[in-house]
Design goal:
By secondary structure, the protein is mainly alpha-helical. The chain is 78% helix and 0% strand. It contains nine helices and no strands. The structure holds protoporphyrin IX containing FE.
Length: 273
């Protein structure tokens, strides 16, 4: 992500703050997403490769493996294993040095990312609506909107790349990354919230409490808002706006780091070691 040209020394400092705060957030998010990929490969990869499908449910799931449901189990397996690939491809797309030094690789991982994002959304919709896997109506609506945004934003990113409108492509690709990361943001948000409050305040087992509702819709709407604030501040000539957004991103980074810690230590770790 790059900031626009600046004119005064103060706005040059502000632009640097903004750029580095964005880079720091991305670094923390990349560590957290690598942990997500690691968890998927170790937990689901080992159980799937060894054919021990019922062991998917060693950790709490809504459905996961269901006896006598080969179609549902098959879609679940594809969905969950491709989750690792789409997350890795999304991360690779946003690393500037890969974009600059290996443009062919960037184009191919970009196609893979957008195609898999679409497949994840469609398989997720089928699991939610076709298989009926959801905790509450409100959480189902939230994730279905997430799926719709993945399909729309991914389509726009693809179309603008084909039309060689690269600035529009860059914007839609970043928005697609945010909504594809919605399920990861949700886990980070849930754990961050629990750690900040020292308990599941405003949460229920069906994910229908007030905090659950804010977090399920917020898992993609808040990242999209933060991204828009970052992009607008980057384009703005006003140093003050850049500083405010950089400080806000600092807080977001702290919360993200806390949530990543929670997912690794409390959510995934207990099922790995
Ligand atoms: C595109 C990014 C997505 C990723 C990376 C992703 C990742 C995952 C993972 C890792 C699981 C296993 C559950 C766990 O261990 O916590 C899962 C399950 C599931 N996902 Fe997704 N998912 C994505 C998108 C979606 C979408 C858009 C929907 C719905 C429209 C969806 C619906 C589901 C459902 C219903 C399950 C089954 C949960 C269960 O049986 O307990 N996913 N997903």
């Amino acid at each position: 992500m790059s900031a626009s040209p600046v004119t005064t020394p103060l706005s040059a400092v502000a632009a640097r703050w903004l750029k580095w705060s964005g880079a720091l957030w991305f670094l923390v998010a990349a560590v957290g997403q690598m942990a997500f990929i690691g968890f998927i490969c170790i937990y689901y990869g080992s159980r799937t490769l060894s054919g021990d499908f019922p062991a998917w449910n060693d950790k709490p799931l809504i459905d996961g493996y269901v006896e006598g449901d080969p179609l549902g189990n098959g879609v679940f397996a594809i969905h969950v294993l491709l989750a690792a690939v789409v997350t890795l491809a999304g991360l690779m797309q946003l690393i500037p040095s890969i974009r600059r030094r290996f443009p062919r690789l960037h184009r191919w991982t970009g196609r893979l990312f957008l195609a898999l994002a679409g497949l994840m959304a469609v398989s997720g919709i089928w699991l939610t609506v076709g298989r009926g896997t959801f905790l509450s109506e409100v959480s189902a609506v939230a994730i279905l909107i997430n799926a719709a945004l993945i399909l729309v934003f991914g389509g726009l990113a693809w179309r603008s790349a084909l039309a060689r409108r690269f600035e529009a492509h860059r914007l839609w690709a970043m928005r697609t990354f945010m909504v594809v990361s919605g399920v990861w943001f949700l886990r980070v948000g849930l754990m961050g919230w629990v750690l900040v409050n020292q308990g599941p305040v405003g949460m229920t087992d069906e994910m229908s409490g007030p905090a659950d509702i804010v977090l399920t819709f917020g898992s993609y709407l808040i990242p999209l808002l933060v991204l828009e604030a970052y992009l607008r501040a980057s384009r703005s000539a006003r140093g003050g706006i850049k500083i405010v957004v950089a400080l806000g991103l600092g807080l977001v980074t702290l919360f993200t780091a806390l949530g990543v810690f929670g997912t690794v230590v409390l959510m995934w770790g207990p099922y790995l070691w």
